[in-house]
Amino acid sequence: MITLQFLVTSLIVVLIPGTGVVFTVSTGLAQGRRASVYASLGCTAGIVPHLLASMLGLSAVMHTSALAFQALKFAGVAYLFYLAWATWRDRGAFAVDRDAAAPLPMRSLVTRAALLNTLNPKLTIFFLAFLPQFVAVDAASPLAQMLVLSGVFMAMTFAVFVVYGLLADAFRGVVLESPRVQDWLRRGFAGCFAGLGANLAVSESR
Predict the structure, then answer these.
(1) CA-to-CA distance for 26 and 201, rounded, in angstroms?
(2) pLDDT of 156
(3) Which phi and psi (to 5°) does residue 100 adopt?
(4) To 5 degrees, how large is the angle CA 41–CA 47–CA 50?
(5) pTM: predicted TM-score of the whole model, two decimal places
(6) How far apart, in Å, are the Cα atoms of 155 and each of 11, 48, 70?
(7) CA 109 to chain centre
(8) Per-residue pLDDT for 98 more than 50?
(9) CA-CA distance, 32 to 19, in Å (whole number)?
(10) Which residues fall within 8 angstroms of residue 158, CB to CB, at 6 or more apart?
């Protein structure tokens, strides 16, 4: 059931930079390792609705219903553009002090990160096509296998995102010491969020 092919494929999928990676890295740079772990937790939690939708067959409905797909897609687009705008405006986002930094509450970070992945309909379509490939044809309980595979995928997602966040935190000192780097990062991450939003806006359900 849990094959080497599944693990390798999952790892490649998780490693590919996307909205969750951008958010986790920006959080690690701005607020440190503890905050990046919360961001990783939120991004992982945001996968749950898509996995449930795949297991319940809701993704098939979304795949055939243009209205359902478009509604969720543009909600995600709007949220990504909001993050781009908020990041661009917040000139103090990366200008933090090691001793006096006041990171966002855990609940806010987790909620914001979870929304990023929840509002991405492409994930639902992805899991509809991805997970069933690794369920044994003669499985006594396909749903149980889907749950196990989903759990492994989520654990891998969390672990990889934590590593991304810790790597970002390792470079945090460079950011703290250079206002120019802070400004570049602010604009860069704002541009990334805007670009991801634009990419989602022009994407199709199939």
Answers:
(1) 22
(2) 93
(3) -115, 10
(4) 165
(5) 0.71
(6) 11, 12, 29
(7) 12
(8) no
(9) 19
(10) 40, 41, 44
